[in-house]
Amino acid sequence: MNKRPLLIVTAVLSLAGCDQINEKLGLDDPAKKEARTEAEARAVGSACRHSGRAIEDCYAIYAWLPKAGVYAGWREMDEYMRENKIETIVPQLPPAEPPGAKKRKPAPAAAEAGDEAAVSNGAAPAADKGDKK
To answer: What does pTM read for this prediction?
Structure first.
């Protein structure tokens, strides 16, 4: 029995499924990843302009995205909003955390300072959850 044709067929079939296997393993084609990142940067730039953020703020908030894409999206939305006389929308949520960033907990001194400021303004300080009398 000749094993050579069997090896050739197996090799061809395994190479044909490389794209699907790479997708399942999380191995992206660099060109596809770059195109996806560029599209995301343009969308973020557009959203920044629509919400009234300055381009410099968008660069600082979304530092992991390419600046050229963010600017392109910001500029396109700016032109669109000017042509159609669209007003900016004030963001209701804080900006997104960068990927891999750890969430910050407020410093105890800052929380105490906030309570002192509230008292000096005539407001009652926030009750601590841990205080039980």
So the answer is: 0.52
Backbone conformation region of residue 29, classed left if phi is above 0, alpha if psi is from -120 to 50, else beta: beta
CA distances in angstroms from 92 to 77, 89, 124, listed in the order given? 19, 9, 26
Beta carbons within 10 angstroms of residue 67's beta carbon = 14
Distance from C-alpha of 24 to C-alpha of 8, rounded to nearest angstrom:
24
Nearest to 44 by CA among 16, 66, 21: 66
- The conformational region for residue 12 under phi > 0 = left, psi -120 to 50 = alpha, else beta, is alpha
Q: Which amino acid is at 96?
A: A
At 99-109, the pLDDT tens digits run 666 666 655 65
> What tokens does 113 get?
């300072």
